[in-house]
Amino acid sequence: MTRPAQSGHGADLAATLYERSGAAAYGVSAEQFAAILDEILRKYLPPNSAHASAEQRADFCAGLRLEELALARACAAGNERAWQDFISRYRQKLRSMALHITRDAAHAAELADSLFADLYGVNARDGVHSSKLVFYTGRGSLEGWLRTVMAQEFINRYRKQKRTVSLEEQTEEGAQFAAAVPEPARTSDRRLEAATDEALAELSSEDRFTLASYYLDGRTLAEIARTLGLHESSVSRRLDRLSTGLRKRILAGLRMQGMSHAQATEALETDVRDIRLNLRSRLTQDSGVKTFPEGKVPAQDAGEGSTD
Amino acid sequence: MTEVPKIVYHRLRAALPERAAPERALGEQAASERVHPDADLLTAFAEQALSVTERDGVLEHLALCGDCREVIALALPAADIVAAPIATETEAVRATPIPAKVQRNWLTSPKFAPSLRWAALAAGVAVVASVLLVHPGKLNQAMPPSANPQIAATAPPASGPPIASSPMDQSAISAKTDKARPKSELRLSKKLKAGQVATPSHEAEPGILLADNKKDSSQADKLSAAPSAGASAFDASTSRGATETVEVSGAAPAVALAPSAAGSLMARNETPAIEKAKPALQEMEVNEQQKTEAAVVPAPARSQARAVMSAAKLASPASQTLAQNVTWAITGGVLQRSLDSGQSWQNALRADRPLLCYSSHDEDVWVGGQAGTLFHSADGGVTWVQVKPSIKAQQLSSDVTHIDVRGDVRGDVRGLAQIVVSTRNNEIWSSADGGKTWEKK
């Protein structure tokens, strides 16, 4: 089914979907709407894919946010009523979203206006004004899509600005630069890396996502839970289980590579950064010893000597 | 939280793919790991709207791509409301009878009091025995004045809780089981007319319920004479004696019971407390002269709906705001809601006929079912009103298969929603004024 309106059943379905979408109110014809659905179907369910049966396509179409899809596409086509609806529903929300993302009123206004311009199709490409809303396919809510697009825009802008701001400007703004920390010499055991990679590879993608979000990105349990649709306590339990399981698997992997239990434990606990920190503390201690050699000069005497 | 070995950090970081031209790649459709999923997929992923296969694919990418994880995290909607579970009907009945003061005071808690009482007694005896052993010669002089006060001092706090908890238990149970009493309704209406209670606030109801269940006339007068006793009793800044603790413990459960029941029981016709309160609440409504839905709902249904809505005013603000984070689903013809992103579900609405579809926009929730069943909640599912769309002599009677709700929000002013209802026999019923008047296509 390349077009939802090909067969009799398909025609019924297309008509039902068209009615449900309310696209007629925005001046989108049934044919235009069928073409939009066709385009979305080709994108997510290619005709040659294993999930391309007529029922699956019908289910897929029925699961789309049809009303929001009709609104977005009508806006992209320049329908005035659609724009009125869009503005009344989302203009204020766009500003709130921008503030939530940027945490700064000035940047939020800038980001929201910029995105709104993109949505309206102010910027012309090859002489044609194109709205970003043509990319909305109704898989998720339009509001969620707007938030995601805004987050992408924010990250892109942030990166661009980060590249273009000179060091002098940053210094003027009060940024302080620490000396670059040299990468420590590679001292970790290859066997340890291999065992860790193997243990990580055995995890499900959701588990690895959870680990990366929590330990690499520093996301909170609540954020991870909301992303995965879980309860916070489930994420907490999962992280506990993962860290315990990973340790066991890495140790088992190291033992399989010929290490004793004690060696494996030592290799797992040793970290190059720890070594560097230890050296630093040792150096500090040494300098302290030199400052006050063997307590030969009592503090009082030293004070008196200095006054003399 | 248990820490992972540091080598895991290194290897997780090392597993990240190359970050080539992220701003170009973001937003482009993709299937492979190196190309980012588009905004549609990321949105659907965050909203749990993807198929299992697609979700796995996106998760596989997200596990390796810090950029997309950042986009997902930034695009999470603001969590203004801390989700707290709405008590189910059984939980509500079980949980509310325990007064807050008694819960806080572990020493006087009925659960611990007997053991603590005996422990205190044993400790006192042990102290006396040790004193006697050390000073055996002073037995006749020291023992009577020193031992008795110690033992006596432990008794009063231990004997407190049963007194405090018993009226509350009675009131809570009677609120569930007793039938409505005309006298109480008359009293309530008289008080309302006399202006003792300016609005049908939630404090008034507990007082009446308590008063009806008191055998002791003095206690009943005391409680019923103060319809707002709950409000004053909730003031934690005042220090009160044991008698006033009885008022608090008595008023609190009835207040807490009503919202729970209103939230979960009303749609099932299992609303003992609310059913009892209907006549009085109807009178409140009449006094308020709210006749806005006369065009839509027939008179009996309207009065019932108002009674239910009025009863729902007993709900705490917290439970009402919780509705904003609700996830809905229909299982087995029953509307269910989840406040924890699908971890647990509660039945939110069960109609006479199976429900088939729903639609929500902010706090506006519409549910449709077989044979023209249509319910509306304007407060996120706290209260429900049955709507019967009709035009001329024709009424919506076919199965409702789909509902679209389009909110009309302009700035901070919330307008009327547009509702489009599709039926199994291809009728389209629409309302542009939040369900007051309908058109049929």
Give the arrangement of secondary structure elements.
The complex is a heterodimer of chains A (308) and B (441).
Chain A: H1 8-21, H2 30-44, H3 54-62, H4 66-76, H5 80-102, H6 105-120, E1 124-125, E2 128-129, H7 142-164, H8 167-172, H9 190-201, H10 205-216, H11 221-228, H12 232-256, H13 261-269, H14 272-291, H15 299-307
Chain B: H1 6-14, H2 22-25, H3 39-46, H4 52-64, H5 66-74, H6 89-95, H7 100-104, H8 113-134, H9 139-177, H10 182-193, H11 204-212, H12 217-224, H13 229-233, H14 242-264, H15 272-288, H16 299-312, H17 317-321, E1 327-331, E2 334-338, E3 346-349, E4 355-361, E5 364-369, E6 374-377, E7 385-386, E8 390-391, E9 394-395, E10 400-406, E11 409-410, E12 413-414, E13 418-423, E14 428-431, E15 439-440
Antiparallel strand pairs in B: 1-2, 2-3, 4-5, 5-6, 6-7, 8-9, 10-13, 11-12, 13-14, 14-15
Helix pairs in contact in B: 4-5, 8-9, 9-14, 10-15, 11-12, 11-14, 15-16
Stretches with pLDDT under 50, minimum 5 residues of chain B: 18-33, 80-113, 138-281, 283-323, 409-413
Number of β-strand runs of chain A: 2
Summing up helix and strand content along with how strands pair, one would put the structural category of chain B as alpha+beta
- CATH fold annotation of the domain at 326-441 in chain B: Lipocalin
The class by helix and strand makeup of chain A works out as mainly alpha
Roughly what percent helix of chain A? 55-70%
Strand and helix order of chain A? HHHHHHEEHHHHHHHHH
What is the CATH top level name of the domain at 326-441 in chain B? Mainly Beta
- Known CATH architecture of the largest domain in chain A: Orthogonal Bundle
The largest interface is:
A-B, 76 and 70 residues
Number of helical stretches of at least 4 residues of chain B:
17
